[in-house]
């Protein structure tokens, strides 16, 4: 499928959706504390989404395979070794946990998508380093994005940073184009592969991407839990996940999910 470049008008509409994403994620970050359940976070995200006239992107997404029901949550809430697609539940957050919250919404036909990993209380220093490394990988992508640059250059820098700190970049799940649909072309990996080099993405004005590095402590291998949705690090150790929706501009990039008013 062809990449759909966005007009300035479409980018501004996506910024409005992104502003809601930022408000919701900020509020959930304020709530994250020992004893709070991920179901409580999900309920608050649903309340805020409705109050701002938006629709959540995740709830109702069809199951990944036969026999697995649609995703039941407004948010994905992934604790510790859970990487992405964690289902909200009565599980309580504990001190020392890390929790990755992924949230997306559609407003006036256009989407925004963002994620943050929150650290709760006294987190192991090695885990804290992994989370900060994941955050920095996204910052590197934002700093490097510019028209005329190949995505493989950006992905290489992200991968080099993560692996240079002794961690691993997950291969199985990548970022994506976004617009009127949550998932559009192109696929946006956080690492360099033969496939990327053969089908590299040339960054150009109007390209909008959800860039989302996912990082593990040791091996990049993951598995899917029995619920059919939750992706878990095979090493059983905590993972990190950060995401912003980015639009390539004439002279660089603008972050559509950073909360700047449309």
* Number of discrete domains: 1
The gross shape turns out to be globular
**Biggest β-sheet: strands ordered side by side in the sheet:** 8-7-9-14-15
Q: State the CATH class.
A: Alpha Beta
Report the helical percentage. 25-40%
Give start-end ranges of low-pLDDT stretches: none
State mean pLDDT (0 to 100 scale). 97
- Residue fraction in strands: 15-25%
Structural class: alpha+beta
Report the CATH superfamily: Creatinase/methionine aminopeptidase superfamily
CATH topology, what is it called?
Creatine Amidinohydrolase
Largest sheet: 5 strands, antiparallel
Please tag this protein with its features.
alpha+beta, Creatine Amidinohydrolase, four-stranded antiparallel sheet
List the helices and strands and how they pair.
Elements: H1 8-31, H2 38-51, E1 55-56, E2 75-79, E3 82-84, E4 98-107, E5 110-119, H3 125-144, H4 151-164, E6 168-169, E7 175-177, E8 184-188, H5 194-198, E9 208-211, E10 214-216, E11 222-224, E12 231-233, E13 239-241, E14 244-248, E15 253-255
Antiparallel strand pairs: 1-4, 2-4, 3-12, 4-5, 6-10, 7-8, 7-9, 9-14, 10-13, 11-12, 14-15
Helix pairs in contact: 1-2, 3-4
């Amino acid at each position: 499928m062809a990449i759909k470049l966005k007009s300035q008008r479409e980018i501004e509409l996506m910024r409005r959706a992104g502003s809601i994403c930022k408000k919701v994620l900020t509020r959930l970050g304020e709530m994250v504390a020992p004893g709070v359940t991920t179901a409580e976070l999900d309920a608050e995200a649903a309340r805020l989404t409705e109050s701002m006239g938006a629709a959540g992107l995740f709830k109702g997404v069809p199951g990944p395979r036969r026999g697995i029901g649609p995703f039941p949550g407004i948010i994905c809430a992934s604790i510790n070794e859970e990487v992405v697609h964690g289902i909200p539940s009565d599980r309580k957050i504990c001190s020392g946990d890390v929790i990755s919250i992924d949230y997306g919404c559609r407003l006036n036909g256009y989407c925004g998508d963002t994620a943050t990993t929150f650290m709760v209380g006294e987190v192991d220093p090695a885990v804290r380093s992994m989370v900060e490394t994941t955050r920095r990988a996204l910052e590197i992508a934002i700093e490097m994005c510019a028209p005329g640059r190949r995505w493989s250059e950006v992905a290489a820098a992200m991968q080099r940073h993560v692996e240079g700190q002794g961690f691993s970049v997950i291969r199985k799940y990548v970022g994506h184009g976004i617009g009127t649909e949550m998932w559009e072309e192109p696929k946006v990996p956080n690492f360099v592969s033969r496939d990327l080099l053969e089908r590299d993405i040339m960054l150009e004005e109007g390209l909008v991407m959800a860039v989302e590095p996912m990082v593990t402590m040791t091996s990049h291998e993951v598995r899917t839990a029995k619920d059919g949705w939750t992706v878990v690090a095979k090493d059983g150790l905590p993972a990190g996940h950060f995401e912003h929706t980015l639009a390539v501009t004439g002279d660089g990039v603008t972050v559509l999910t950073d909360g700047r008013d449309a």
